[in-house]
Amino acid sequence: MLNPILNYLKSLFASKKGIGSDKTMKGLTKVDGLLQGLINEKRVPGLSITVFKDGKRFFEKGYGYADTGEKRRIVPKTTIFRIASVSKPIAATALAHMVADGIIDLDTSFYKYVPYFPKKKWDFTIRHLASHTAGIRKYKGKEFALNKPFSIKDSITLFKDDALLFEPGTGYEYTSFDWVLIALAMQEASGVPFETYVYDTVLNPLEMNHTFTPEPEEVSNQILESNSSTWVSVSSANKQHLATSYTKIRLGFREAVPVHNFYKLAGGGYLSTTADIAKLGQAYLDGYPLNKKVLSEFLTSCFVNGKPTYYGLGWQVSQDKMGRSYYGHIGSSVGAYSNFFVYPKERMVFSILINCTDSKVQDILDEVVQELLGLQAVH
Description:
alpha+beta; globular; 379 residues
């Protein structure tokens, strides 16, 4: 007789051709056990996973709690998490639209779009910013957990007077401040608020209906008043689906410190579900409706001094330990940890969201992804 987990998985995937094979069932049972183990061992409070294979849901489940006090369970299609740097591929997709439409040129000086940014020793471009080769510094001190209601434009006061770390194009420094500047340039070039442009070109067309900007109380009244009718923050109707963000402590978890993430929407501020993030990945596998040359620039690793950075424009571009190529992003922020991978050859999309600051579980998540990739050949 099948054990309870195997029974659950068999029922869950019974309608999908080929899923019931012994090899696949054993693999899915292992995956389920690995993820449930993170909850049982109190390594994370809650986790959601959505995996697509050939355009269909291959594995999807919620583990643990969206709120540990209320014992509110996680539902992959509706539970909303902070997605940290998985925001970058969303912003990069919107930027690709702007490039394809001729609104922004990747290789034109940033100062063409934002002339009021203090001049530096060297000029730099949108491409430099998107590839993290502009020399803009990373967070300092408590900036990672900033709790000030900045607009995108106002937030540049944090770093605008700092010198570049190196001549653009000669080094690599990963920083979400790069994407603050890109969002600002996109606003100035288009005359449309960044979040509105992203909604119109990416979220709405892909029916990412559970992807939002931070909740209104995290945003200043000035920002709210300046936005158009396409403001897409977490409303009271959706607030019930928002996962509580936690920080791991010795005996469990405590609520994470409050933060204001609106100003860094492009680099790490969006809220979403695993089901919605998987839609973005699937859209790319299905042939995202943009100029292929433009998309190729975003999904090709840049080089510095003849060596690959394994980063394109807003996308991590690399190979896993088995030599399989993928693009996507890993994210970590206050009260959140995220994985998003697209494997084009295997035609698989992985979306994993956790409502806790980095709990050092990437090794387990990697094992889950590798196990599921190993099963794809069965189908």
